[in-house]
């Protein structure tokens, strides 16, 4: 049997296959010679009844990330060429590539006191989320943006950006980008910027916030909708207040929370109410002490980062205790549940949902709420 064609061998395990014979084997060799593959041997893999992601659910501990980032701070300079001291999560199902999921990059970035990361731009869309620390300004197209605990910051594609640490303490934060998606799409462009950031001032608020970060108010001078949000920083005080208010409303018997004990807000583009970046969705969630969320599946992948508190994250048949800074990758269509411990649990989440929504490939199923929606039957995103 050592001379049997690889197509025949692969077909042996698959259902609905023709009876093996020398003639069939010759046919399969013909396919191979002509670089052809029949559907009937591949259909289980290519057209499964539900998504079968190669990515797996995985938890990374912030304490370990930080330890290794600090060590990188001792040993690895930041400069032109390498560009960033960023260390990416590599999903165990994705062959060692620096991909948290097939579409999402998630990395810890680390800057030593008084250190600079050089200016560059790329078509990949980026955000930063600050789980602890402060003292770095990221300068986005000449606008200096302070980075502080709890802040969510945007660097939309093709904006020049460099970071500089103005404090005597090191700073680490989470970077999220659509690098794996852009890589798979063969759609990446990159350019070096000037050697120095052009504005080294250190304002508490960026010009983008002065113009745009006033609830419900847009500048009359602004043109129409922009593909990415014009707000460079969403400050923790606003996010925190929004979550606290949802839970206060729930306590008073009014609607607003996602489900009992679970408040959540989505960061949005104020010019159109949509997601902050064309490829990335970002949200902040708060669970009351002891709250447990309904199991939820969604097409597309996501990454959670605990911001505050302790709890347990369950994805499929895996479960992890998590604490501030810990990260969990959730593959497409895996059922996930969050549970808060004795304290409230705050979590940041980002996902590739905008891609799937725009392609009408998005489905969600929540335990106790029936089946996932069929393609073409989704309502408008809310
Ligand atoms: O800070 O500009 O984690 O360009 C990966 C690529 C961070 C950044 C990353 C980047 C950056
Ligand atoms: Fe960058």
UniProtKB/TrEMBL annotation:
Which Pfam family, an example, fits this chain? Answer: Cupin_2
| InterPro entries (UniProt xref) | Cupin_2 (IPR013096), GDO-like (IPR047183), RmlC-like_jellyroll (IPR014710), RmlC_Cupin_sf (IPR011051)
- List the Gene Ontology MF annotations in alphabetical order: oxidoreductase activity, acting on single donors with incorporation of molecular oxygen, incorporation of two atoms of oxygen
* Assigned keywords, A-Z: Dioxygenase, Oxidoreductase
Task: Pinpoint the Cupin type-2 domain residues.
Answer: 109-175
Keyword tRNA processing among record annotations: no
Give the domain of life.
Bacteria
Q: Report the transmembrane regions from the record.
A: none
Q: What PANTHER family is this protein classified in? A: 1,2-DIOXYGENASE PROTEIN-RELATED, CUPIN
Mind telling me what this protein is named? Answer: Cupin domain-containing protein
User: Could you tell me which species this protein originates from?
Assistant: Streptomyces radicis
